[in-house]
Specification:
The complex is a heterodimer. By secondary structure, chain A is of the alpha/beta class. Helix content of chain A is 36%, strand content 20%. Chain B is globular and about 70 Å long. By secondary structure, chain B is an alpha/beta fold. The chains are: A alpha/beta, B alpha/beta.
């Protein structure tokens, strides 16, 4: 059928900022879509508010709008660009929802725009609860039986019909309060009585309880001719009940016999055929573990996180194929790029297993509730490929960077059997697999653990194999046989030595097998490898066979997406690879994140999908024999490898290992600053709480505390009092005792950030960024403005000069990121990172300076001069760009939303405008701020900020907002002639601040407190309440002030120009 | 863990002299066969009991085999006809509600030698490049008798395959109220072919492979089903001759796999041996009439040469989307259609089960005409 002749210009809608549940997988999907469209010679218009993505790169589309993803903005883009089609299914739920709104309003029809990928009817059938049920019923696919009831008798009657156990879910109670599982009528009467009482509308949903059923997913594709195939099956380690994004997933499904497998496969194909999806679709099933009974849980008629995983797990590029289908091709017309011979109309066969392991942010959110359920909490994930489950599991665990190299976790090793069983009974937590492992190791039987957790015995037996292997290692001589067995099971040499207490009798390097979609049946063309311990090394054969005489360079990626290390490093890694190819090198990528563009098999010349630990990396180097390696684009994950690589004599391209160390090591860094004559906030290193208190006294509060081994603000706090210091030291010392803690004088000045490129002689600063929030709020959580708006000429010149000195002193070759604080007119250095940073993608895009490309070229000896750049600050452009952080607080229970030195945001948006106000307006709108121009403002700020609050409160008051505040703040404001209503604190009884937040009167809350974190504190409860009620909550006075200014400007999105960044 | 730690050594010796050292499961001893690989990720039980694998040593490309154990319900025949079985890893702790035993127990009880813990991907790639190859699995150290063993391996051929697997007695399987009577030629049939017919209201009379036209006529069937089976189709000279007569009876015929090949041979076409065959559950087949591609289950080493079909007698109806080989034939001169793949599935996708419905429609038409 081929490309539809009526398609010439396509609008692609992206998924916006990274939030929990909608992450880098849509950059991967979107980037694939854009490339597929461009390869067809189509004109591509892109809109996405997320500047850290590859898809918003100039190479990806002809017109790029980094603009808020609101209905009005998308409409305006359509009016400006007049595309003939919109691609709806590649931008996650955001893109799909916008597309549907455009279609349903008739906007697309009236503008002669065709909707590609899915039609509104399909989406309606898949997403509307009742329509979905009806559709499934029509084709005879079972759903989970459920019914809304309003009386106990109806509940009992319905339960009789569907059989016990049943789940009771009260309507409109937060967090499911009042619900539960009933095993019999008596329990049901109890629970539903209570549930009906708690539900404000006296309604409960009675649903058949399927907890303990297996959760199975299928990724399916259909074309307009009606060809249907399944790409991959996946099975969740945890039974139904834990969100699939939070579950360990194995592909293909492993505990299903052919009968069960084909039954669900057929069901998937029936569903996609009935929905008439043209493209990819995800079908989730619950399968009874003791019968052939199953139920359809959910259907997503678009590419998803699961489809990204399935693509990487099989080598079948779902997004690319789905895009081609959307523009008219059929599956039998699309060549399978992996084999180059076969067609996309087939089902991949795997000769390995894949494990996906989620990455959570609980290391940062120590007070967050770790229980897993139907709300996804993971920020990212890793994937591991192995020839056995055990091997893949071991690889997955170390890829996740949890600080363990096996399934053994200290805190669970220390627990008694009873304590562990209690934990397992208490519900599913993120570390459940480690808890299970510890219990098995302590002798609890597979049967007992199965009874408690309902995890299939197959998985438990596999973990048991690891337990047995470890005890085998621990006893007797470490023989060759033991060593090789342990290697096959995925253990590192150092782990084997630690467990056996003996030196390894030999060392064996890993070999590499190809991911080829066909289990070796056809010769594959695409070089995508994973390590295993076996006979034949296909990567080596491949390298020998395809030897081009080019030098090989390995680029290390950044692993799983987590807070503080996100998609921006993937952007940098991919750009580095592109430049390496351009320069005539063979670019090899090593990474383990299935959501990313870097792990697309045709990004580099070769892809190794493996953990990024020293031994794993050594193995790759042994096979590749590269000319050099690049560590500076893969975030801390890659930087951590530097020392090891340098010690092994590997050629590290760019800034040397020694100089990276000089920036990271506290003492060396202090020395360097002294040499350069650059001041930094005074600080000391301490080991104990006692020392900490003493030093803090000496420096004077507030002080900044952080463990010495981390960068990026992990576990960092600002202490305002001795009590804070004691609390903090308590937490830190309970975690890791040996590491010293750094205490610095906290300077509450303006934070300024610079990304620079240096070739050893000259340096280039593409732009200076200023943060709206003063120092103390993590740079990743601050609103950042380019170009800096409020710096004096002298400060600016000082920053340029300091950047020069530091770049040269550290002999930076490539990128460096420097953070400054401007305090009382003086410039101090906070941190220097001789590597790429979070801000590189956005600065590259708004200044037009391809920073990674330049940095890469410089690593290979080109100079800035040769590339045509002058030393110093690059001239500022006509536009102001404002980066606004985006949080996922509604997904994480009990996390304090107050911003501080520890980063909390999961993603970011960009606003670009002619003026600062316009840019900020756009940035805030893009980040989801509902900029209401009237209503109530609740203010509760710490004493030190009350004075500043007057000015801000005054602005709100003058705009006509009704002000409310807790007693202290209210009396202060009233004294300053700003009329404010007093609200009771929570402890003062109802009605109090929480009731006020519930009342719907409040549209903005400004809440700062001297202390936070602990979920029980009043201030934290207020902030959580505002999250639950979707009330805009501002936790820094600077943010509140900026927002007030935007509101005061009177500008709205209708007034601002939309900017195609390819024209900047 | 008990697995890798305690397995006795076993070897695969290929005709080209390559030796793979692994470990033994199932029975012990030495066995020679044609080494083939199958890419199906589930359905190992169906593979082990599919008579089409007669004389072959089957390698599973999927590394984890035996995860759900074995159960009698999923057998495709009462026997296992594979000569030997090769996996990367087998599971001694299977988990499935229907599980009745381990795959190791199954192999032992059927006296089949199994080999595990070898680089099955290396083996697969060897077979892909060199084509299917004879080989031996042995639990004895092969070095001492290598020359002798290699000579045996190289001279091995699968002969009289159908004779070894066919029923010798006629058997009847009937649903409660049969609507059709079908004669099922047993060239080594898979149980689910029979079941697919019974499910559609057919009284199925399974007849030996060498049943002649007059015997078929006396049974007064509404349709004739030609089953799958092992070996080189062209060696079945007598059966091919019989089929020519049987086709002339004018009764609707449906052929699968070997049945498809034998039918084509009886109508004047040729068959050829494929380099390494099609074995798996993911083979794409294009139905030329509709243009639709179906994912099919396949297990064959030979194929009908499409161009050799006399155009006045038959035309190719299906082709393999990967290598474009003939996957189905529709006959013009006689009321017959045949496919190379397995619409009965088990294991594999159920997507082409509608072909059985086409068969019953043809029987309906035939019966109507007879009235």
């Amino acid at each position: 059928m081929g490309l539809r002749s009526d398609i010439k210009k396509v609008l692609v809608i992206g998924s916006g900022p990274i939030i929990i549940g909608q992450a880098a997988e849509f950059d991967y999907a979107g980037a694939q879509a854009c490339r597929a469209l461009k390869q067809e010679g189509l004109e591509v218009v892109l809109i996405n508010s997320n500047p850290a993505t590859i898809m918003t790169d100039k190479a990806m589309a002809d017109k790029i709008y980094i603009e808020p993803l609101t209905l009005d903005v998308v409409k305006r883009v359509i009016e400006i660009e007049q595309p003939d089609s919109v691609l709806s299914t590649l931008g996650g739920q955001t893109g799909l929802t916008l597309s549907m709104q455009l279609a349903e309003e008739g906007f697309l029809d009236s503008h002669n725009v065709r909707l590609l990928g899915a039609n509104p009817e399909t989406i309606h059938k898949a997403e509307d609860r009742q329509a979905f049920k009806d559709t499934m019923e029509k084709i005879g696919e079972p759903c989970i039986p459920s019914k809304v009831v309003e009386t106990v008798e109806d509940a009992v009657a319905f339960a009789k019909e569907i059989g016990y156990p049943v789940i009771v879910r009260p309507a409109f109670t937060l967090g499911g309060t009042g619900g539960g599982i009933a095993d019999n009528e008596e329990q049901l009467r109890d629970i539903s009585t209570n549930g009906l009482r708690l539900s404000p509308i006296t309604q409960v949903l009675i649903e058949k309880c399927i907890s303990g059923w297996k959760e199975i997913e299928f990724e399916v594709i259909r074309d307009r001719k009606g060809n249907v195939i399944t790409v991959c099956s996946m099975e969740n380690f945890d039974p139904v009940g834990v969100h699939t994004g939070d579950s360990i997933v194995i592909a293909p499904a492993v505990t299903l016999s052919d009968r069960e497998y084909q039954m669900l496969r057929t069901a998937s194909l029936n569903i996609i055929s009935e929905l008439k999806v043209e493209g990819g679709c995800n079908c989730q099933f619950a399968l009874h573990p003791e019968s052939m009974e199953y139920a359809v849980i959910e259907v997503n008629p678009r590419v998803s996180r699961s489809s990204a995983l399935a693509s990487k797990a099989t080598g079948y590029p779902i997004a690319k194929v789905a895009t081609r289908i959307a523009i008219g091709y059929t599956l039998d017309e699309i060549i399978n790029q992996v084999t180059g011979k076969t067609y996309a109309c087939f089902e991949p066969a795997l000769d390995y297993v894949v494990i996906k392991f989620p990455k959570w942010a609980f290391d940062k959110f120590v007070y967050a509730k770790r229980t897993l359920g139907t709300q996804m909490k993971a920020t990212g994930e890793v994937m591991a490929i192995g020839t056995s489950f055990e091997q893949a599991m071991m690889k997955a665990v170390r890829s996740t960077e949890l600080g363990v190299d096996s399934m053994n976790m200290k805190k669970y090793e220390k627990m008694s059997v009873d304590e562990l069983l209690m934990l397992l009974k208490n519900g599913v937590e993120d570390e459940r697999s480690f808890q299970v492992f510890a219990a098995l190791k302590k002798g609890v039987s597979v049967a007992q653990i199965h009874e408690i957790t309902l995890i299939d015995e197959w998985f438990l037996e596999k973990l048991m194999n690891l337990v047995e292997l470890e005890s085998w290692l621990a006893e007797g001589t470490l023989t060759e046989e033991k060593y090789l067995t342990a290697k096959k099971y995925g253990y590192l040499d150092k782990t084997i030595e630690r467990m056996s207490g003996q030196k390894c009798p030999l060392h064996r390097n890993a070999v590499y097998k190809m991911v080829d979609t066909c289990a070796g049946e056809f010769k594959a063309e695409t070089p995508y490898f994973y390590s295993t311990y076996d006979e034949e090394n296909e990567a080596k054969q491949f390298i020998d066979r395809t030897d081009s005489g080019k030098k090989k360079v390995i680029v290390f990626g950044s692993g799983p997406i987590r807070i503080g290390q996100g998609i921006e490093f993937d952007y940098c890694s991919v750009h580095c690879v592109w430049t390496l190819k351009e320069l005539g090198y063979e670019a090899v990528i090593c990474n383990n994140n299935p959501e990313t563009v870097s792990t697309d098999f045709d990004t580099g010349d070769r892809l190794y999908f493996d953990p990024l630990t020293p031994e794993d990396v050594d193995n790759i180097i042994a096979t590749e024999q590269p000319y050099g390696v690049v560590v500076q684009f893969g975030g801390q994950t890659a930087i951590k490898l530097t020392r090891h690589l340098a010690d092994s004599g590997v050629n590290i391209l760019g800034t040397s290992a020694d100089n990276i160390d000089a920036a990271e090591d506290r003492e060396r860094f202090d020395e360097l600053l002294e040499q350069c004559g650059i001041p930094r906030p005074e600080g000391f290193t301490v080991m104990t709480t006692k020392e900490a208190v003493k030093v803090a006294d000496k420096l004077g509060y507030p002080v900044l505390l952080r463990p010495s081994y981390v960068l990026g603000g992990q576990n960092m706090i600002i202490a305002h009092s001795e009590q804070d210091v004691v609390e903090y030291m308590g937490i830190i010392t309970s975690h890791m005792i040996e590491n010293p803690v750094l205490i610095d004088k906290y300077m509450m000045g303006t934070e300024v950030e610079v990304d620079a490129i240096c070739d050893g002689k000259d340096f280039l600063i593409p732009g200076i960024m200023e943060h709206i929030e003063r120092a103390g709020v993590h740079s990743g959580d601050s609103i950042s403005i380019y170009p800096a708006q409020n710096l004096s000429k002298k400060v600016r010149e000082t920053i340029i000069e300091y950047t020069r000195r530091l770049s040269l002193a550290l002999n930076v070759v490539g990128l460096v990121n420097i953070q400054y604080v401007v305090y009382r007119g003086e410039v101090y250095v906070i941190e220097v990172n001789p590597r790429s940073s979070r801000t590189v993608p956005y600065i590259s895009k708004v200044t037009g300076i391809p920073m990674v490309d330049i940095a890469t070229k410089i690593m290979f000896g080109t100079t800035l001069k040769e590339l045509g750049y002058e030393s110093g600050l690059y001239p500022e452009g006509d536009y102001v760009a404002v980066k606004v952080p985006v949080f996922s607080f509604e997904k994480l229970q009990d996390v304090d939303t107050m911003l501080g030195p520890e980063m909390k945001s999961t993603g970011e948006c960009l606003g670009i405008g002619r003026s600062f106000e316009d840019a900020l307006l756009k940035g805030l709108v893009a980040a989801g701020y509902d900029l209401k121009k009237e209503g109530g403002v609740l203010i509760s700020v710490r004493d030190s900020e009350k004075r500043e609050m007057v000015r801000i409160a005054d602005k709100f008051s003058r705009m006509g907002f009704e002000l409310y505040a807790t007693s202290g703040t209210a009396s202060y404001l009233n004294k300053n002639m700003i009329a404010t209503n007093t609200v009771r604190k929570i402890s003062e009884g109802s009605p109090n601040t929480l009731d006020l937040l519930d009342s719907g009167k409040i549209h903005y809350m400004i809440s700062t407190s001297a202390k936070g974190r602990m979920p029980a504190r009043d201030s934290v409860r207020m902030r959580r309440k505002s999250v639950e009620r979707s009330i805009c909550s501002l936790t820094a006075v600077d943010t509140a002030n900026a927002l007030a200014n935007v509101l005061r400007s009177g500008r709205s999105m209708d007034d601002v120009e939309l900017v195609d960044i390819t024209k900047i | 863990m008990a697995l890798i730690k305690n397995g006795k050594p076993a070897y695969l010796v290929l005709a080209d002299g390559q030796v793979f050292r692994g470990k033994c499961f199932g029975a012990e001893g030495t066995v020679i066969g044609e080494v083939v690989f199958t890419t199906g990720m589930t359905g190992y039980q169906e593979t082990l009991t599919d008579p089409s694998y007669y004389g072959q040593i089957v390698t599973q490309t999927f590394p984890l085999i035996g995860n759900y154990g074995v159960n009698a319900e999923d057998y495709e025949s009462a026997q296992s006809y594979v000569s030997g079985y090769i996996v990367r890893e087998w599971c001694n702790t299977p988990s499935n509600f229907r599980c009745e035993g381990t795959i190791d127990g199954f192999l032992k009880s059927h006296n089949i030698i199994g080999l595990y813990d070898i680089d099955t991907r290396r083996l697969t790639r060897t077979l892909r490049e060199a084509g299917v190859m004879n080989g031996a699995i042995t639990t004895e150290e092969p070095n001492e008798k290598m020359a002798e063993l290699l000579a045996q391996i190289r001279s091995y051929t699968i002969t009289d395959a159908v004779k070894h697997v066919t029923e010798t007695e006629q058997r009847v399987y009937a649903p409660e109220k049969p609507k059709y009577r079908v004669v099922l030629f047993d060239f080594g049939y898979k149980r689910y072919i029979r079941q697919s017919l019974v499910n559609r209201g057919c009284e199925v009379i399974v007849v030996p492979a060498d049943t002649k036209a007059e015997n078929v006529r006396t049974l007064q069937p509404d349709g004739i089903m030609l089953s799958n089976g092992p070996g080189d189709p062209s060696e079945n000279v007598e059966i091919i001759a019989n089929l020519k007569d049987i086709a002339a009876l004018g009764i609707p015929m449906f052929g699968i796999c070997l049945g498809h090949q034998l039918m084509a041979l009886s109508q004047g076409a040729r068959t050829e041996k494929l380099k390494y065959g099609h074995r798996g559950a993911n083979q794409p087949v294009i139905d030329l009439a509709s243009g639709t591609t179906y994912v099919t289950s396949q297990n064959h080493g030979y194929a009908v040469v499409g161009e050799s079909l006399p155009p006045e007698i038959a035309e190719v109806s299906h082709i393999n989307a990967n290598d474009r080989t003939c996957e189905g034939v529709r006959y013009k001169a006689v009321d017959a259609f045949t496919v190379q793949f397995h619409p009965e599935a088990h294991g594999g996708p159920l997507d082409t089960a509608y072909l059985f419905d086409e068969f019953t429609s043809r029987m309906d038409a035939y019966k109507k005409e007879a009235e």
